[in-house]
Specification:
Blueprint: H1 10-17, H2 30-45, H3 49-69, H4 72-75, H5 83-102
Helix pairs in contact: 2-3, 3-5
Length: 109
């Protein structure tokens, strides 16, 4: 190996300056889900809990449908693991939000 005066080899310096391209997917369908989640959180801030429950649960179920329907390259930010794992987790979370929200006792006391 040829070395420069500072102890760093020339070949290593050339290969270290070239970085591989990042494997970043576009967010794609994630923006639709993000918009629905923001609307749901706005309902929470304005004390419309049943509307918030419906919006948040529906956005998670919509994410599951989009993850199932879209290929991994088009799913963007909602493609985290394998399609089966993503869909099952999103459906479980969506149903859990809906069930927990609709079983709340929201009557004033």
């Amino acid at each position: 190996m040829s070395e420069r005066g500072d102890g760093q080899d020339v070949e290593g310096a050339a290969s270290a300056s070239v970085r591989p391209a990042l494997d970043a997917r576009p967010l794609a369908a994630w923006w639709l889900i993000f918009g629905a989640l923001v609307v749901g959180l706005l309902f929470v801030l304005t004390d419309h809990m049943l509307r918030a429950t419906l919006t948040l649960g529906a956005s998670l179920l919509l994410a599951a449908v989009l993850r199932l329907a879209l290929p991994g390259s088009r799913a963007g930010g909602i493609a985290v693991r394998g399609p089966l794992v993503d869909v099952v987790l999103l459906v479980v979370l969506g149903v859990a939000v809906l069930v927990s929200g609709f079983t709340l006792d929201l009557t004033a006391r």
